[in-house]
Amino acid sequence: MAPLRLAVAILLLALLVAAGAAAHLPTAGCCRLARYARFFCFGDSLTDTGNAAIFPSTAGGPSTRPPYGETHFGRPTGRASDGRLIIDFLVEGLKVPQPTPYLAGRTTAEFINGTNFAVGGATALDPAFLASRGVMSSVPVSLSNETTWFHNVLQLLGGSSSEHELRKITASSVFYVGEIGLNDYIYSHIDQSVDVAASLVPHIIGAIRLALTEMVSAGARTLVVTGMLPLGCEPQLLALFPGDDHDPATGCVARLNELAELHNRALERMLGELRRAHPGRLFLYADIYRHVIRAVASPAAYGFGGRPLAACCGGGGGKYNFDFAAFCGAPGTAACADPSEFVSWDGVHFTEAANRLIARAMLRGLRRRRAIAATVCPPSARLASPLVTAE
Fold first, then answer.
1. Where is the signal peptide (predicted)?
2. Considering the entire predicted model, what is its pTM?
3. How far is 320 from 326, CA to CA, in rounded Å?
4. What is the rounded CA–CA span in Å between residue 246 and residue 233?
5. Domains, the chain, ranges and CATH?
6. What are the DSSP E strand ranges found in the chain?
7. Number of Cβ atoms within 10 Å of the Cβ of 220
8. Distance CA 291, CA 229 (A)
9. Dihedral angle over CA of 327, 331, 337, 339, nearest 10
10. Which residues are catalytic?
């Protein structure tokens, strides 16, 4: 059995055992194993499986050209990686259908098995708000736009379903909010400063909270929310700010990682508040930061080569192999011989190998905490906290 499938099998077994134990509690008679049918996905290029390739202002971007997709698909698919993304591994592990990119679908049949609303370059905050802070975004899509698209899909599905059936659809779905906010921070840091970027944290967390609240109002019961990756370890930012104070343990820009940590602490607090406000829902926090830091600090221990801060693909050369003028997929650039030895694919996005590592860590975290789906048990019957940190 493949390692990822084994991890999922163990997770589901743990859920089943815990649910069985809960059944002996006076208030737990309704507990049963939650079985998910589909994903509804939100986020940016770390989650986008094809929308940016269609959206007018991003169509024809790097992810639509070779060597993107070479490792798994053998061709570009609109994914910003050499192969599969984190969401692809989660979908495979839970054995649910691949969600249709929103901009690629038209009919109920195309959306009934799940939808991916993520767009490469999307921000958590609306472009107008960012502009009011002197920050210019390059892609006019925000998290609020993606939640609007979600409501559009619900209306389409509602045309052939009753309100009760719609609630069954959302209740049996995993709402996956991939990393979102990275582009806000990058745009603001390039245009302004790290202090301006840090001032956006409460606004970004507020935007995520509003989106999650809308999902819950629509009937969402299981919501997985991904934290911020270590910004200071991105080859694009390391190349842009080579003179900054670097952490001796990782080589990453310390102040940028502190910004990511600030974001993640605020995100976890917000999820705790939502958990208390909505005890019938399961809010899961997925920690990308910790696993990337570990891979960068000890690459060999995680199967990577000796250049964890360099991009596999690009024409930049040097320590980080990154240059905005020679981005992966542009003429004169090339990919490394073995992407699985690298954490970063193009200086901005992860390789398939890194995405696999992160997805497995998410599943291990769920298994260790023996998360009981609040979707099927009353609050008093739960045996574990609904706030789950992937370890």
1. 1-22
2. 0.86
3. 13
4. 10
5. 3-11+38-389 (3.40.50.1110)
6. 38-42, 100-101, 114-116, 173-177, 222-226, 282-286, 388-389
7. 23
8. 9
9. 30
10. 45, 346, 349
Three-state DSSP state, 191: helix
Question: For tokens 């089943």, what's the residue?
Answer: 16
Q: Radius of gyration over alpha carbons of the chain, in Å?
A: 20
For residues 119 and 107, is the Cβ–Cβ distance under 8 A?
no
Structure tokens at 202: 């409460």
Q: Quote the tokens at residue 335.
A: 């990919």
Alpha-carbon dihedral 301, 297, 178, 9, rounded to 10 degrees: 20
pLDDT (tens digit, 9 = 90+) per residue, 101-147? 999 999 999 999 999 999 999 999 999 999 999 999 999 999 999 99
Task: Provide the residue type at 168 as one letter.
Answer: K
Measured CA to CA, the distance from residue 368 to residue 323 in angstroms comes to 41
Residue with tokens 């008093």: 380
CA dist 108 and 183 (Å) reads: 32
Nearest Cα to 320, choosing from 287, 298, 295, 344? 344
How far is the C-alpha of 365 from the C-alpha of 371, rounded, in Å? 9
Angle between helices 86-94 and 352-369 (to 10 degrees): 50
What tokens does 225 get? 């929310």
pLDDT in tens, 39-54: 999 999 999 999 999 9
Contact residues for 30 (Cβ-Cβ < 8 A; gap 6+)? 376, 377, 378, 381
Class of residue 206 by CB neighbours under 10 A (exposed 0-12, middle 13-18, buried 19+) = middle
Do residues 51 and 101 lie in contact, with contact meaning Cβ atoms separated by under 8 Å? Answer: yes
Among 59, 40, 46, 62, which residue's Cα sits nearest to residue 331?
62
